[in-house]
Design brief:
- There is one protein chain.
- The protein has a four-stranded parallel beta sheet.
- It is built from four helices and four strands.
- The two termini are about 15 Å apart.
- The longest helix is centred in the C-terminal third of the chain and has 12 residues.
- The relative contact order is 0.25.
- The protein is α/β, with parallel strands linked by helices and about 90 residues long.
């Protein structure tokens, strides 16, 4: 995952806007899990996509939704803190 982040993967936080506002990964995009199916256009053309949330559960669901829609380049980054740690290391 570290290599993907350093190469500029599309970082997507699938938590709610309220959770996102409390703290998030710098440069990440907030697309709440319930909005992912309606926002597929935002994922098109991205080389690598990393989805993450509070615990890794919602991001796992987001990964499945994206894969069902033909995206093969999706990584479940787990928690936003994990992704943040890699980004700032």
């Amino acid at each position: 995952m570290e290599k993907l982040i350093k190469e500029g993967a599309f970082l997507v936080d699938v938590r709610t806007p309220a959770e996102f506002a409390e703290g998030h990964v710098k440069g990440s995009t907030n697309i709440p899990l319930d909005q992912v199916p309606n926002q597929l256009a935002q994922f098109k053309g991205k080389d690598q996509i990393i989805v993450f949330c509070r615990s890794g559960n919602r991001s796992g669901q987001a990964k499945m939704i994206l894969e069902r829609n033909g995206f093969k380049n999706v990584t479940n980054g787990g928690t936003w803190q994990d992704v943040n740690e890699v980004l700032n290391s």
